[in-house]
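User: Reviewer 2 asked us to show a designed sequence for the structure in our supplementary figure. I'm pasting the structure tokens here. Could you produce the per-position amino acids so we can include them in the response letter?
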């Protein structure tokens, strides 16, 4: 491996913003690691985050060094085990090549200008994920957050088969409410209200996931009771529990990238009801789709600066101490993997101190 220094190597680029805000966006700077290798051969088990961290000081800079656009960021099928990531030091870019075969049939040299692109065979079966998928898979399709408008309009179980208190797999459930053309539903029970740490207003409810129902017979004209069958029962479900249509399977492999617009959020809750979170734990924040967050967006986490008295600077007749707010202290990074209207869930990727409710999460600087 060549021993070139990359100290001071920087890439300034216009953040990948929506067209309406691109002109006013401040340039974002990425920096390569001083010990970045000349190349990396992708192996099974790699993640985009890990590979990024091999070359870059901040892993969320990955799309920057590829010059990727919004469509390419959202494409989950573009890098596979066996391919080689080359560090083109002169251009300050990473390039994608193929493994050099034993017979020399496929050349892969740093000058190759291959770019990430979709594979037509296998369509993502072996594609490298953005982050370790096993950590977040249980949270991708289950209803984690129920927002107020959903709570009011959600269909509900109004009666059970033979008046049973709880339903199990194969039992019938009678449901009232507008199904909106859907036939497969998740059953949930509203849980703890989530309050915005700043406004103290309730912005959603954590949902207890109970199982799934499948439509057996839709209500006939003039009636409003639908007959369902319990497909799965993770927990006891019964009269009064509510329904939500099963969402489509989300794309799980968005490349890490800065938000499309400046975001300043606060940590609302740590999943599981604990007060502090560390690496690979999940937190919710008080910003969502309507605030410009999408899957794969990366935020920096900060402990909010405390307000303290400055005993070295006193004012007034009675020598009152000035109140000064200390700077926010960066403690880690957050990868957004699930978004709702006003709330998002993120996985803590790196952390130097425990994250707690009220901490700040904002766009990378």
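Assistant: Here is a per-position design you can include in the supplement:
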């Amino acid at each position: 491996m060549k021993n070139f220094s990359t100290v001071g190597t920087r890439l300034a680029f216009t953040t990948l913003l929506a067209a309406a805000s691109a002109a006013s966006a401040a340039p974002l700077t990425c920096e390569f690691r001083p010990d970045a290798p000349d190349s990396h051969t992708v192996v099974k088990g790699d993640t985009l985050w890990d590979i990024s961290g091999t070359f870059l000081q901040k892993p969320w800079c990955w799309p920057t060094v590829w010059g990727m656009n919004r469509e390419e960021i959202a494409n989950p099928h573009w890098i596979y085990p066996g391919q080689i990531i080359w560090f083109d030091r002169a251009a300050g870019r990473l390039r994608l090549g193929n493994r050099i075969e034993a017979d020399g049939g496929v050349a892969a040299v740093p000058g190759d200008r291959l770019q990430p692109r979709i594979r037509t065979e296998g369509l993502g079966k072996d594609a490298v994920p953005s982050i370790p998928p096993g950590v977040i898979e249980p949270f991708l399709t289950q209803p984690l957050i129920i927002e107020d408008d959903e709570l009011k309009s959600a269909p509900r179980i109004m009666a059970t088969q033979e008046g049973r208190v709880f339903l199990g797999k194969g039992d019938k459930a009678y449901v009232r409410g507008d199904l909106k053309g859907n036939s497969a539903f998740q059953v949930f029970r509203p849980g703890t209200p989530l309050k915005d740490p700043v406004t103290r207003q309730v912005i959603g409810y954590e949902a207890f996931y109970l199982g799934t129902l499948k439509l057996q017979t839709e209500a006939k004209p003039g009636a409003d009771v639908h007959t369902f069958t319990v497909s799965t029962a993770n927990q006891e479900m019964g009269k009064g529990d509510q329904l939500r249509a099963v969402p489509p399977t989300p794309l799980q492999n968005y490349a890490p990238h800065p938000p499309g617009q400046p975001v300043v959020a606060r940590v609302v809750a740590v999943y599981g009801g604990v007060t502090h979170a560390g690496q690979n734990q999940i937190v919710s924040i008080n910003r969502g789709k309507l605030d410009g967050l999408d899957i794969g967006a990366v935020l920096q986490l900060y402990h909010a600066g405390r307000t303290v008295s400055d005993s070295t600077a006193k004012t007034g007749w009675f020598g009152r101490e000035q109140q000064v707010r200390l700077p926010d202290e960066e403690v880690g990074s957050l990868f957004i993997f699930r978004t709702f209207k006003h709330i998002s869930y993120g996985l803590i990727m790196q952390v130097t101190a425990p994250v707690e409710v009220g901490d700040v999460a904002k766009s990378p600087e």
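For the response letter, you might also mention the following. Confidence is low (pLDDT under 50) at residues 1-27, 100-123. The chain is about 10% helix and 35% strand.
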